[in-house]
Amino acid sequence: MSEVEVEEHFKRLTNNKYVEGVLIVNEDGQTIKSNLDPTLNKKYSDLITKLVDHATTCVKEMDETNDLSFLRVRTKKHEIMIVPDKEYLLIVIQNPEKK
């Protein structure tokens, strides 16, 4: 995907009224792009990176020929959607109850 396409997708996601945050994180947990304040950005990138590592391990232990392709976490306040790729994680935080 080109840099222009990534930027277009990022803008489309951040313009969605339900989306509160979008992060693109590299394989080392470093943020490449985000619309969150630095404190929240650090918290989400650190914790979600660990969660994806654990989930990937679980999937591999159940079936070593399988891979994690999408992870969705629903809490009382948010829905966090995570798309892992070989080099990056796309993290979208939304408030499904927002009106």
Largest sheet: 5 strands, antiparallel
Number of helices: 2
User: For the CA atoms, what is the radius of gyration?
Assistant: 14 Å
- Give the tally of structural domains: 1
CATH class: Alpha Beta
What is the helical fraction, as a range of percent? 25-40%
Whole-number mean pLDDT: 92
Which class do the helix and strand fractions yield?
alpha+beta
How does CATH name the architecture?
A: 2-Layer Sandwich
Distance between the amino and carboxyl termini: 33 Å
- CATH H-level name... which superfamily? Dynein light chain 2a, cytoplasmic
Major sheet strand order: 2-1-5-4-3
Residue ranges: pLDDT <50 for 5 or more in a row? none
- Apparent shape: globular
Which oligomeric state applies? single chain
Strand content: 25-35%
Keywords: Cytoplasm, Cytoskeleton, Dynein, Microtubule, Motor protein, Transport
Subcellular location: Cytoplasm, Cytoskeleton
Domain Roadblock/LAMTOR2: 6-94
Protein name: Dynein light chain roadblock
